[in-house]
């Protein structure tokens, strides 16, 4: 049921100026479908609905250790062959593997079942710590909340950072998390008053991204020692202050590249990099293309 909630929320309408998707849930046996929380979901569409879909996402199901019906596998393969994007959330990757779509590719699934997937399908390179794996026409995501990461990545990839960021803000989620599943498996939920101070410091950092923002300054504002702040930050966010700032800066740079014609030098200044050269180096390393190439992919700017 969580997976159904993830995809229906991400691809639901999110306001003016954002894409509107023709979204549908499909099954090989339309009608009431049982779920893991005991509440059935009535699904109207059969597999024929997949024939015109631009994106197919295989969701997890209880009996994933048993391959889906041949008709399901055929529908997934047919979608891939005609050029649709095919994705899988959590143990939905087992369906893609059974269809042969993960052969000679890297794939993600829930960390608890990564070894099982690798053992059953040795032709698949399973990466148990990845939040999601983008292999071009095939995308796989890890378990539970990592479905949001995968779906937001799909929005970012197809529509750009501005759209992904807007949808993430509407859902009160980070638009991009760096690192693998291991970062989030045992991260405790912070509950004491220091977390209010931490939230205030993070909000201040977002508003002052053009500043250097050393960890010592963030710790001072949180009324903590540098070591305590780093430890508390990781417990609360699942990542380090440096990684969080880098992700935020690159995300803001993406949005500025898409939505403005500001020179790269000015964007670098606004997001807190010392020079355009540093932004180019970080952007290319983390996003795979230099800023100007990224801008050309999403805008008509020169």
For this entry, give a set of tags:
two-stranded antiparallel ribbon; alpha/beta; 14 helices; 302 residues
Description:
The protein is α/β, with parallel strands linked by helices and 302 residues long. Helices cover 47% and strands 9% of the residues. The chain has helices at 2-10, 70-81, 93-98, 114-120, 146-159, 161-170, 182-185, 194-207, 215-221, 226-237, 241-259, 264-270, 276-287, 291-298; strands at residues 31-33, 41-43, 55-58, 85-89, 106-107, 125-126, 132-134, 138-141. The strands form three sheets. It has a four-stranded mixed sheet with strand order 3-4-8-7. Strands 1-2 form a two-stranded antiparallel ribbon. Helix 11 packs across helix 14 (291-298).
Radius of gyration: 21 Å
Strand order of the biggest β-sheet: 3-4-8-7
Structural class: alpha/beta
Cα shape:
globular
Order of helices and strands: HEEEHEHEHEEEHHHHHHHHHH
Count of DSSP strands: 8
Poorly predicted tracts of residues:
181-193
| Percentage of residues in strands | 5-15%
Mean pLDDT: 89
Number of helices: 14
Distance between the termini: 45 Å
For the sheet with most strands, the description reads: 4 strands, mixed
Residues in helix, %: 40-55%
What's this model, at a glance?
The chain has 302 residues and is an alpha/beta fold.
Secondary structure elements and their pairing?
Layout: H1 2-10, E1 31-33, E2 41-43, E3 55-58, H2 70-81, E4 85-89, H3 93-98, E5 106-107, H4 114-120, E6 125-126, E7 132-134, E8 138-141, H5 146-159, H6 161-170, H7 182-185, H8 194-207, H9 215-221, H10 226-237, H11 241-259, H12 264-270, H13 276-287, H14 291-298
Parallel strand pairs: 3-4, 4-8, 5-6
Antiparallel strand pairs: 1-2, 7-8
Helix pairs in contact: 1-5, 5-6, 9-10, 11-14, 12-13
């Amino acid at each position: 049921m969580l997976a159904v909630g993830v995809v229906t929320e991400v691809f639901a309408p999110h306001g003016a100026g954002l894409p509107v998707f023709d979204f549908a849930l499909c099954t090989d046996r339309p009608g009431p479908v049982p779920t893991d929380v005991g509440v059935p979901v009535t699904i109207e569409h059969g597999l024929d609905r997949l024939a015109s879909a631009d994106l197919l996402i295989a969701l997890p199901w209880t009996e994933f250790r048993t391959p889906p019906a041949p008709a399901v596998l055929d529908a997934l393969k047919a979608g891939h062959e005609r050029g649709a994007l095919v994705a899988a959330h959590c143990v939905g990757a087992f369906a893609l593997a059974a269809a042969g779509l993960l052969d000679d590719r890297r794939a993600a699934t829930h960390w608890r079942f990564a070894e099982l997937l690798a053992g059953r399908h040795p032709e698949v390179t399973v990466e148990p710590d990845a939040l999601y794996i983008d292999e071009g026409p095939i995308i796989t995501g890890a378990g539970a909340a990592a479905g949001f990461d995968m779906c937001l990545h799909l929005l970012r990839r197809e529509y750009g950072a501005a759209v992904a960021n807007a949808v993430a803000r509407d859902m009160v989620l980070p638009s991009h998390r760096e690192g693998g599943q291991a970062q989030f498996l045992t991260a405790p939920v912070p509950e004491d008053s220091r977390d209010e101070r931490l939230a205030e410091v993070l909000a201040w950092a977002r508003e002052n991204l053009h500043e250097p923002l050393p960890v010592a300054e963030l710790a001072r504002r949180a009324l903590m020692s540098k070591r305590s702040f780093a430890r508390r930050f990781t417990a609360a966010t699942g990542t380090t202050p440096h990684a969080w700032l880098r992700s935020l800066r690159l995300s803001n740079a993406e949005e500025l590249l898409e939505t403005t014609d500001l020179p790269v030098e000015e964007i670098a200044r606004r997001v807190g990099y010392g020079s355009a050269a540093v932004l180019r180096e970080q952007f290319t390393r983390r996003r795979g293309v230099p800023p100007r190439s990224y801008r050309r992919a999403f805008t008509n700017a020169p």
